[in-house]
């Protein structure tokens, strides 16, 4: 992955000091208690007046106690500063090149060690009546971060429907392969299609979610419509977008970045400020939207989720298993 030098940062990113309402403030302003509501996303209230926000509003979104109590980045940060190499390697390429992408109708192939394999329609995989909003920090391996109000379903709820067998030790995911729609796939930047994987324990962990929306609305294409993984304690590249294939397997799957540069990217990719990328430090991160002169933020072990996920890695050498 490329890191940009300061002169390549667009002016719009620097001046984008958009409405940094404290989350509690906007909850109060919207007349909503911290206990949460069902029916409308609270983040949605914060951007109700943002003319840039697009996409169908998702109904029946409940607030999750697993959310960070921090203000999310702006709609514009979340939907125009993206990594999605199928649509180009620049940060604004996905937003520019994914507009015409057909993310509906959508089929997902489910295969491997489970009792209910098959081809499922989006609607069979995602029950839009049980959506949750989860405000998580996204920490990219390139050492930048932002806070995103995702909407989705715990991945475990989805995977259980396919009835995984005891031989299912890992779950492998794949992005759609369609070079006609995805111009980045016409160039050999990666060995397409993009593939990712998790251990079954990681996949079933309550923090792991399948996102289908952001800011209370259907996920924009550039964010991985119609469904993408969100694994908040791992580097962003684990959160594979536009998934159309899920496989239960007994062998640790190879992932796209591991295949492309095994000395730089491993299977686990847990956020770890103590293990530097061979080409840059992982100790701190640039906070998107904070302004050019804002101090960098200290990166936290497991992106701040040590208490919740640390046990998954007891006995694992995190320096070797990067
Ligand atoms: N299929 C696919 N999924 C992907 C990527 C990609 O290039 N292709 N980029 C990853 C990286 S590096 C990051 S940081 C996140 C970015 O998610 P966002 O653009 O929604 O913030 O998506 C991840 N998922
Ligand atoms: Mo990333």
Can you describe this structure?
This protein is α+β, with helices and mostly antiparallel strands. It has one domain: Sulfite Oxidase, Chain A, domain 2, CATH 3.90.420. The protein has 10 helices and 13 strands. Strands 1, 4, 5, 8, 9, 10, 12 and 13 form an 8-stranded mixed beta sheet that branches. A 5-stranded mixed beta sheet has the order 3-2-11-6-7. A hairpin with a 5-residue loop joins β2 (107-112) and β3. It starts with 10 loop residues before the first helix and ends in a 13-residue tail after the last helix. The structure holds ligand MTE and molybdenum atom (MO). Molybdenum atom binds next to loops.
Strand content: 15-25%
Helicity, in percent? Answer: 10-25%
How many beta-strand elements? 13
Mean pLDDT: 89
CATH architecture label name: Alpha-Beta Complex
Number of discrete domains: 1
The stretches of 5 or more residues where confidence is low (pLDDT under 50) are 3-40
Q: Largest sheet at a glance? A: 8 strands, mixed
Radius of gyration (Å): 19 Å
Count of alpha/pi helices = 10
CATH superfamily: Oxidoreductase, molybdopterin-binding domain
* CATH secondary-structure class: Alpha Beta
State the distance separating the first and last CA atoms.
16 Å
Could you spell the SSE succession in H and E letters? Answer: HHHEHHEEHEEHEEHEEEEHEEH
Shape: globular
The kinds of small molecule bound in this structure are: the ligand Nc1nc2c(c(=O)[nH]1)N[C@H]1C(S)=C(S)[C@@H](COP(=O)(O)O)O[C@H]1N2, molybdenum atom
**Helices and strands: which structural class?**
alpha+beta
CATH topology: Sulfite Oxidase, Chain A, domain 2
